[in-house]
Amino acid sequence: MNQEHAQQLKAAIEAVKSREIGNIYFVACGGSMATLTPAQYILDREIDIPSAVYSSNEFILRSPKALNDKSVVISCSHSGNTPETVEATEFARSKGALTISLSHLVDSPLWNAAEYRLHYDWGTEARAEENNYGILYRLIFGILNTLYPNEKYARAVASVETSLHDVFERNKANTLEAAKAFGSDYKREPIIYTMASGINYSLAYSFAICLLQEMQWIHSSAIHAGEYFHGPFEVTDYDVPFIIIKGIGETRLMDDRAHDFCQKFSDKIVLIDAETFDMEGISAEVRNYFANLVAGVVLRQYAQYLSEFRGHPLSVRRYMWKMDY
Amino acid sequence: MNQEHAQQLKAAIEAVKSREIGNIYFVACGGSMATLTPAQYILDREIDIPSAVYSSNEFILRSPKALNDKSVVISCSHSGNTPETVEATEFARSKGALTISLSHLVDSPLWNAAEYRLHYDWGTEARAEENNYGILYRLIFGILNTLYPNEKYARAVASVETSLHDVFERNKANTLEAAKAFGSDYKREPIIYTMASGINYSLAYSFAICLLQEMQWIHSSAIHAGEYFHGPFEVTDYDVPFIIIKGIGETRLMDDRAHDFCQKFSDKIVLIDAETFDMEGISAEVRNYFANLVAGVVLRQYAQYLSEFRGHPLSVRRYMWKMDY
């Protein structure tokens, strides 16, 4: 365990404990917003303090009236340089909110904007318990266990610290061949929809906007599995591809229903089913909160092989970082 | 004015006033969810009681812990028959929440599930102040004016009651030629993105999932104008169409930024700019909360002409109402 990370987490969790909390906001952009969103889902299920997710500029310009000195604002930017997220964190702090920021870069503008700073590791060598999701989950379950002490939360933290990394590695290995087949089979698709619900929805969103649109220039849209039947399902046809992520928790009913319908009319369904994951080591009572993380690692490998079969590296951009915008 | 509607609104507003309110949920599916969403935006800006929007099944299965007898749950189903929304309303009521439902059909299952029922008119003859948005806005500004009496809110209600219908008609007439040109120019597009932010975002969402995907079988995705720069903008190219809705309020900065960038690289931008609307009769201080409604009427006419030039009526479905799902 990285002792610096542990100390940063301890300080942030104690700060939350020391305050009266009226509401909690998660604020970030794009992939970082999607990273934070599962934590909002967990809080929604576990505690009666309202919480919400905002894209950074929407948060600043909308300026929710409930943002005040009883708010906790958790923000995230990988580089720590995303101007909207830095500004949103400064804005929240100016309103008296307790600010906690996650970033890979120490001493970045975001790092200096937030009252409590959480560094996370990144890259192929980084261990899961020290990367963005690992730090976020240790923070959220740490806050829960401090505010409402419960063995369940302690076991969730322990699951991250002792088992998550190996779970990721085993499931990556188990889905390697499926990832290669996906890359080969779907390399010529001009549009690929993603679909999920509950805690997995933000993964469908980030796969659509970051992996497909941003990194592969493939048209996409994340469809909520419950919303599918209220409009989007009419585009379903034999040649329209859908990546469907099925969770293992309380919202799986929606995923099952969407999958059952979709497979009747589309011949191009890519199913990521959390029930097939090897979750050994993750405490059984919180596995529904972890399957989305495993699905994310599995899908990242799918994207990697899609990019290889398309000869379009995931690192290529035409606008991002290339010009002012 | 329809006296029955006025009485139903009065009863619902008084019920809200009589309770201690901890939070407010808006719950519906698809187009009805998008209809309710602007009200959440208005509450976010105007009061410090947290509020949130959920798709009905997500609401039931997620079962937010903050849903209790201090909650107000506002739901909507046009037919009053949407099973998920009926169940969500019953679920909310079972948790002790105050339930208010909007529906076009009296004595529908939703009508019977909710404690307070608001009927709205529908069809080509319906007046704006009595249709879905008219009733919703009279409810929301009525609640605001009862909880926090303010001339601004009274003028907002008066704007709906006296002027909204004519504003809709005038702006429809003003954009008729533009709607026809859109239908002709975009009739062969296989994918059309929509983009907006703030109070207009839910209109981008409903236009994407209801008008384009459901009613025209055209691929689409609603992009949040702030999120555009964090992934989606990489799909922008000279031949990729975007319908961009620009509001007149506090979030217009995001719309301007997205439009400025998008028009550099796409030759197919359809701009719906609320600054060009004739808003005479709507109280100046709340026009930012009404421009989305006008944009919706304008865009509905765009969809009408798109359907005519494509020979694909807006009423055609292949799955909806045709089978069990």
Automatic annotation (TrEMBL), chains A, B:
InterPro entries, per database record: FrlB_SIS, Fructosamine_deglycase_FrlB, GlmS/FrlB_SIS, SIS_dom, SIS_dom_sf
An MF annotation (GO) of this entry: hydrolase activity
Enzyme class: hydrolase
Keywords from the named record: Carbohydrate metabolism, Hydrolase
Pfam families the UniProt entry points to: SIS
Record EC number: 3.5.-.-
GO biological process: fructose 6-phosphate metabolic process; protein N-linked glycosylation; UDP-N-acetylglucosamine metabolic process
Keyword Hydrolase attached: yes
Domain of life (superkingdom): Bacteria
Sequence ranges assigned to domain SIS in this UniProt record: 12-149
Subunit organization: Homooctamer.
PANTHER family membership: FRUCTOSELYSINE 6-PHOSPHATE DEGLYCASE, GLUCOSAMINE--FRUCTOSE-6-PHOSPHATE AMINOTRANSFERASE, ISOMERIZING
Role this protein plays: Catalyzes the conversion of a range of fructosamine 6-phosphates to glucose 6-phosphate and a free amino acid.
Protein name as annotated: Fructosamine deglycase
Top-level taxonomy: Bacteria, Bacillati, Bacillota, Bacilli, Bacillales
